[in-house]
Amino acid sequence: MLEPNKGIFTYQIAREMSSEEHIRVIAPVPIAQRVPFLDSFRKHKIQRDVPQREKFEGIEVDHPAYHAIPKLGVLHHFAMYRALRPIVKAIHDVWHIDAVTCHWIFPDGVAVRRICEELDVPVMLTPLGTDLNQYGDFPIRAGIIKRALRKSDRVSVKSREMYDRCLGLGVREERLALTPNGVDIATFNILDREQARVKLDIRDDSHVILFVGSLVPVKGIETLLRAFRLMVDKRERTSLKLYLIGTGYLEAPLRRLSMNLGLNDFVQFVGTVKHRDIVHWLNAADCLCLPSLSEGHPNVVMESLACGTPVVASAVGSIPDFITTASGRLTRPLDYGDLAVKLDQCLTATYDRKIIRAHVQDFSWKECARRYVSELSRLVEEKRMKAVRPSTEKEDA
Questions:
Q1: Among candidates 314, 321, 313, 322, which has minimal Cα distance to 164?
Q2: Of 390 and 86, the one with more pLDDT
Q3: Dist CA 130 CA 295 (whole Å)
Q4: Position 42 confidence tier, pLDDT thresholds 50, 70, 90
Q5: Given the DSSP bridges, would you call strands 154-157 and 267-271 parallel, antiparallel or unpaired?
Q6: I want to staple 196 with a disulfide (CB 3.0 to 4.6 A). Which of 37, 66, 236, 283 is the partner?
Q7: Fold (CATH) for 8-182+365-392
């Protein structure tokens, strides 16, 4: 795995599903990301040495390449279809695929739905957030996504907000399933805060706000920096610290903004942290902040709650389903004044870490995978019943 911090949730679901069912994973790779000159475009820079096939923890993973031309994303589902159909057909010929689940709607889900229709295999599509929330701003792409969702056998969504949005797009309610992501409750647990801070060289008397995510516009980090400036001015003390974990093409502009706001003594850009080590940061923090403009089901929120650390986050995606006054605060996207108030409230409130953890105690990855298997099994049974019904009707005639 060249980028072990990406797609953690999909990996967790696949791993748990593999303990119950025989599964194969296909993770396509945009071939444009293997063209060296494109590395000059920050948005397209990525590791290029993805193998065509690998085995990870006993799961076979194929990485077919598809042509992805920058600025022509609206056509990528055609390229995805051409790349995926031969390999899906080859697996189907050997395995006889019972059902397919596909995470991410465009271009992946659009192509996969068409392939499954041609092969007569039931399919469940799972939007993750941006694909459903932001791609709707592109009229042609939005129409393609809407058609794919309406024609799929099942649509699994992460939050009530996404559920309602799919209903608005014309997806029939009987085809919708609400399946929140899980959390690794064994890895992400309550640890001693003082020891976590010693491990990370954080002063014990600091008031620590933590951000974990990609440094990209949708995460609202500029709003966080401006809110943090207000907090520093109000508190008139140097104990406030903001740690930003993650990388992205906005890092340089965000560093400049932090400097221009006079926050260099209070803000630290940590960079990449191994996923298994984030538990120490979450336990060291007084609160996690995720001021996103939109979200699907952000895993870091679940992980923070599992560590007993309160969360201040935008009221988007599945976040309102999990955050109450007993576990944090909700804020309005892009409103840095409101965010500053909510962060200050969180830092001055008293929380019971065990009660916070109880919010996600029942959302293990095993339970999440069980829900996926259950929905896919229903699709298989529905297909079987449709096949039996015509013959039964013929006999009755």
A1: 321
A2: 86
A3: 7
A4: very low
A5: unpaired
A6: 283
A7: Rossmann fold (3.40.50)
